[in-house]
C-alpha cells in the first residue's frame, strides 16, 4: 500500500509537516509505505513547504513589522539563487494583537526589507507568498522599504534598473481580486484586519489614488489585474512596479515537488486542510492535488479537521471526504495540537486495518 501525503496545514493548530508526521507515524505502523510532501498554497506554512521542495536554507534578518517595530523575520534561500518570501513574516496579521490592528496605519515596509536582503545576497528569482497579511497599504510600504534598503534617497525606478535589474518575481497566490472597487482589497479583506466601514472607504480611496499616480508614473496600470488585491494590495505593487507574474501557489509547489512523477507509483493520495467545504473547489490545494491524481487514476481522499459539503466534493472527484473531529467535540478542543494528533490516529486506525493489502476507494 503506497500512500502519498499532500496535506495543507491545519490553520492555528498544526503545520503541514506536523499533520503529515502524525499521519505517517500511524500509517507506517500499520504496514503502509508512506511518502510525505509538505504543502502550502502560498499562505500559512508556505516558507517551510517551498524551501523543503527547493532543498534550501532558512535565513534570518531584522526587519520592521506592520507597526514599524524591529522583529526577526525568516525567508528561504535555495541553492539555485531563488528566494522564498512569506510576506506574513514581516507584515502578518499575527504580528499584532487584536487591539493593535489598524490597516490605516499598518505597513508592508518590512517586506521590502526582506526582498532587499535577498537581492543583496545574489537572488534573482523570487517566489512571493501573499497570505496572512495584516495590511492594506497597496504595497506602498514595501516599495519604500525596498528603496530605503537598496538606494536611500533614490527613486524606485533607480532601484528597478539598478540592483533589481534582471530579477523575476512570481506571486504564489490564488486571490483574483483587483486592487480597488467593490471586489478590491479594502472592501473584501480589510474588515478582517480591523477596518471599520469608514476605514474601508478611506483605504479604497487611497488605493485608487495610488493606482492613478502609478499609472501616470509608469505608463501602465496593473490595478485591475487578477491578484492585485492580494495581501491588502501588496500584489498590486509587485505587479505594477516589479513586473511580477501570478501563479497558483498550489500548482507551483506541486511542480517543484515533481508531484505528477510520483503518482504512477502511488495507490492512494491523502490530502486535506483544517476546514474543507465547497470553497475547497475554488483552486485550493486539496482540489489541485485531486485534479492531478485524477489524470493518473489514483484515488484521492480528502481528510480535514472539519469537512462540510461532502456531496459537491465527492461529485467533483474526491473518492472520499472525512472529518477528523468527532461529532460534538468543541472547536477550541479540536484545535489543540495534541487532540488533533489523537483524532488523526483514531481515524487511521478505523480506516486502515493492520497490514491491509488492499485499500478501499469508495466513499
Content of β-strand: 15-25%
What is the gyration radius calculated from CA atoms? 21 Å
Number of strands: 13
Helices and strands, in order, run as: EHEHEEEHHEHHEHHHEHHEEHEEHEHH
Strand order of the largest sheet: 3-4-5-6-7-8
Distance between the first and last residues' Cα = 18 Å
- Characterize the largest beta sheet: strand count, sense, and whether it forms a barrel: 6 strands, mixed
- Uncertain segments are none
Round the mean pLDDT to the nearest integer and report it.
Answer: 94
**Total number of helices:** 15
Helical fraction equals 25-40%
* Backbone structural class: alpha/beta
The dominant shape is: globular
Describe, in plain words, how this protein is organized in 3D.
- With 363 residues, this protein is α/β, with parallel strands linked by helices.
- The chain is built from 15 helices and 13 strands.
- The strands form 3 sheets. It has a 6-stranded mixed beta sheet with strand order 3-4-5-6-7-8, sandwiched between helices. It has a 5-stranded parallel beta sheet with strand order 2-1-9-11-13, sandwiched between helices. Strands 10-12 form a two-stranded parallel sheet.
- A hairpin with a 5-residue loop joins strand 3 (57-64) and strand 4 (70-77).
- It is globular.
- The two termini are 18 Å apart.
- The mean pLDDT is 94.
